[in-house]
């Protein structure tokens, strides 16, 4: 291998780059100088106590919230702004929607469209964004439902499915836009315990196939199994991050140890 080729992985832009992000709600500081780099194909698990800013961080990455200070890039492209000479110019709503379509988001409460069939839930976004025509989108949706083990539920409505099945549909829907990264916000915490495993199995399958994932979860065993990197956040700051064997098994900070002792 030539030196040039060996260096390529460093040259490729980060899948997600969060740089010195600060976010306030009124006088309440929710993110306090967060830096985070997610490489393409990497699985990052974010852990932290309730109220520590995990959901806000994901929402900033997806441009559902705008940071007061700092910036975020996805695949090397700044989110929400464009360079204009040496000034930053805010993007139009339309350009923001186009950026957001390159980021998948899976919510705690599934957020499926209740009036659409499972198939149409998955097929809707590629049609709405003009990426595929209706027939192509439906074909893709069938393939994705097959991938999450729900090929036989295409004509059902969300209310006819279990929570675990609904969350698998939500994952298929996130995949339909072929996003560069998928963000998961506590994807199993609204599920009955016996339904958690089927959703984690689908996420594991994505992780193994090289999809870039950022997952907020309290499932420590799952994090140990699939994470390339675990990030512990508390009080809006990253307290420590590293491979699961370090952060989960030999945490350096008292706050991390304290948190792990409560969730394990
Ligand atoms: P986590 O996901 O780690 O539980 P969040 O990011 O949801 O934490 O919230 C972090 C803090 O920000 C909490 O104190 C929460 O109450 C506050 N917060 C979140 N969203 C809003 C909002 N829209 N307006 C005001 N405060 C908010
Ligand atoms: Mg949250």
Description:
This is Arginine ABC transporter ATP-binding protein. Residues 16-260 form the ABC transporter domain. The protein is of the alpha/beta class and 264 residues long. Helix content is 38%, strand content 25%. Helix 5 packs across helix 6, helix 6 crosses helix 7 and helix 7 (163-175) runs parallel beside helix 8. The model has no long low-confidence stretch (mean pLDDT 92). Bound molecules: adenosine-5'-diphosphate and magnesium ion.
Short descriptors:
264 residues; alpha/beta; 6-stranded mixed sheet; 4-stranded antiparallel sheet; 11 helices; 12 strands; globular; binds adenosine-5'-diphosphate; binds magnesium ion; AAA+_ATPase
Could you name the ranges where pLDDT drops below 50 across 5 or more consecutive residues? none
Strand content: 25-35%
Bound molecules: adenosine-5'-diphosphate, magnesium ion
How far apart the termini lie comes to 44 Å
Radius of gyration: 19 Å
Shape: globular
Total helical segments: 11
What's the count of strands? 12
The topology string of helices and strands comes to: HHEEEHEEEEHEHHHEHEHEEHH
Q: Please give the share of residues in helix.
A: 25-40%
Mean pLDDT: 92
Class derived from helix and strand content: alpha/beta
In what order do the strands lie side by side in the largest sheet?
8-9-10-3-11-12
